[in-house]
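We examine the record.
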Amino acid sequence: MRWTAFAWESASRAFNNRPTFTGLVVVLAASSGGGLVAYADSQPDQPQGFKKKKVVVLGTGWAGTTFLRNLDSKLYDVQVISPRNYFAFTPLLPSVTCGTVEPRSVVEPIRRILEKKGGDFKFWEAECFKIDPANKKIHCRSNVGTNLDGNGEFLVDYDYLVVAVGARSNTFNTPGVTENCHFLKEVEDAQKIRRSVMDCFEKASLPYLNEEERKKNLHFVVVGGGPTGVEFAAELHDFVTEDLSKLYPSIQHLVKISLIEAADHILTMFDKRITNFAEDKFGRDGIDVKTGYKVVKVSKDAITMQNPATGDIAVPYGMAVWSTGIGTRPFVVDFMKQIGQANRRVLATDEWLRVRECDDVYAVGDCATINQRRVMEDISEIFRVADKDKSGTLTVKEIQDILEDIYVRYPQVKLYMKSKQMNGIADLIRTGKGDTEKESVDLSIEEFKKALSLVDSQVKNLPATAQVAAQQGQYLATCFNKMQAAEENPEGPIRIRGEGRHRFNPFRYRHLGQFAPLGGEQTAAQLPGDWVSIGHSSQWLWYSVYVTKQISWRTRALVISDWGRRFIFGRDSSGI
């Protein structure tokens, strides 16, 4: 997962008077290196022999690690399971590919994070390959050891499961991608790319190659014009022009970098001003941006792409990096089939991050998406709850009495009103009935439906970014810390279907902006409020934010020293 946020709120501080949690939780969270964490919780004042509930967390990426750092470890017996024994700061992976930052500068051992946190934590370096929700068990396989049967498999039971295993690269079943392309999801991927770049230059320097063969070896193709692909292309261009051109002067003029995007523009999730600037800058830098091209096949020697105007084109290449999106991990796909979500792309959760159709399982990060409840699905129940006098009609005042609960439960209502520049509920209801100035105006259920018929158009899925995953991990930890207190004093909105109130307010993502480094010490920043900044000043802002968001002082010091080393001595070109 790539970090594109300008800033996201720091981890929440410890809560006073934390309630104890008495259930077992297993959490699977999206991360670049999936893992599992289990927690057990018991109240300090429980009688002797009382057993804490167990929380299991799968994944040590952004969502899983943020959850662990904010969870009150005194309340649970926590077990963490992941095939990676570290947390990786994935936003800097493009910098790792070219030696701007060293691999160990962007990772923090998970055991060190847990040690600093304190409490009863256990970590096992293994991967989950099956979830058994009926029996509340997880099937795991060790990567580093075997059991008496020799297969390294073991079972972990849970009370609550948090799924935070992230996602894998999506090849869209394109032939040859897995065999011939590099991905950029893990630290290991970045290291492979770095070695491959140097191998291409060394091959092109061999004396028996002709110029065409040298051009082929020095053609670097990036498939995918999103933030990761764009940043890698920019990093590679800087590496070539600032460092490798001095070391390979006889072949540096043969280097070509191509960026292939199926859409009409790159960086489509950014403001058009940033998109246009990026395309113009890449054009000036000599990066060949091919928009409107779809890659249909990748062989060992050539990439075949399609364009409506030109048809199929086969282009020889030396190295290709595939960065076109994310896909679901195989064991998550199997889990989705068990719980009736076989037709979905990723795990579906409700607004409280609980996996739908599955008790006591939560999912956060890239492996899941929030299935926001539609207003029109509950319109009759909303009308019933608002109609306190059972008159069969609603007044403006009756709607206003539950308006805040509606805003919290269905955020699309407020977004729709903002998009239409409506000043209040009266403006919205006016679409269903003309005169709403008087509080005594009656609104029938059909008129109420008409007024709210278009608000669900504002429902959108959240992007798969580190910013989203980190906010979800922090939110879920806060819910766990306050679970017992919320049972007695719920703080959420009114239950539209049912009685009372929800225990917590639903998760709400707060977008704090995003960056797009474009090379040459220039970065594009898009912040809330339609604020766009492009240039060298934004690059220094990018430096400061990424240093601030490092998970430890150790990695902060290492990243800063790497940047300083690069400014003074250049990037390392060793093929290791």
About this structure: The mean pLDDT is 89.
